[in-house]
Amino acid sequence: MPTLVLASTSLYRRELLARLLVRFDVADPQADESVLPEEPPSATAERLAVAKAMAVASRFPDALIIGSDQVAFVANQRFGKPLVRERAIEQLRLMSGRTVTFHTGLCLLNSATGRSQVCGVPTEVAFRQLSDEEIERYLDKEQPYHCAGSAKSEGLGISLLSSIRGDDPNALIGLPLIALCRMLRAEGMQVP
């Protein structure tokens, strides 16, 4: 069985993959995550998932490599990782009372054969109408500065939401495990 590699430095993706009780390595993809002009957000997420997997393929010539990326958006406005409090406040104000799509791109690359499987898993997240005080209290308690959209649904961020719609709750956290299991089985890996 080939080695399984997660092409990501995300602690969240690592924790999600560990749920499958499979052994895996982690590699920093160091991929360029720039958005291309006129590129739809869903295409960005899927392209970057492939780019991350491809970026580590030469280091793992006989592996199944997982690449994943997520883009949050409403209409033509994208929400990335805020990194700092001021940006998180701005994002949460803009998302307040709106439904945001979190599109998670997933790629499973077999570096030995060159075969790749790619899909996108959208999740629609409806934010409640948020007051500035609620936003400030939330950020004081959770500090989600490394999460696209500034809210961790797996934590206190769930209190900011009115609904979540999607096929895989793990996709919102950053790694769609249902689709990944399907891809791994297609490559001959037994899950569970």
Can you give a write-up of this model?
This protein is of the alpha/beta class and 192 residues long. The chain has one domain: Alpha-Beta Complex (Maf protein). The chain is 32% helix and 28% strand. The protein has 6 helices and 7 strands, in the order E-H-E-H-E-E-H-E-E-H-E-H-H. Strands 1, 2, 3, 4, 5, 6 and 7 form a 7-stranded mixed sheet that branches. Helix 3 packs across helix 4. It is elongated. The two termini are 15 Å apart.
Please write the CATH class name: Alpha Beta
Low-confidence stretches: none
Number of domains: 1
Helix content: 25-40%
End-to-end distance: 15 Å
The SS-based structural class is alpha/beta
CATH topology: Maf protein
Give, in order, the helices and strands.
EHEHEEHEEHEHH
Total of DSSP H or I helical runs spanning 4+ residues: 6
Characterize the biggest β-sheet: 7 strands, mixed
Give the averaged pLDDT, no decimals. 95
Given the C-alpha coordinates, what overall shape results? elongated
Number of DSSP-assigned strands: 7
Radius of gyration: 17 Å
Percent of residues in β-strands? 25-35%
CATH architecture descriptor name: Alpha-Beta Complex
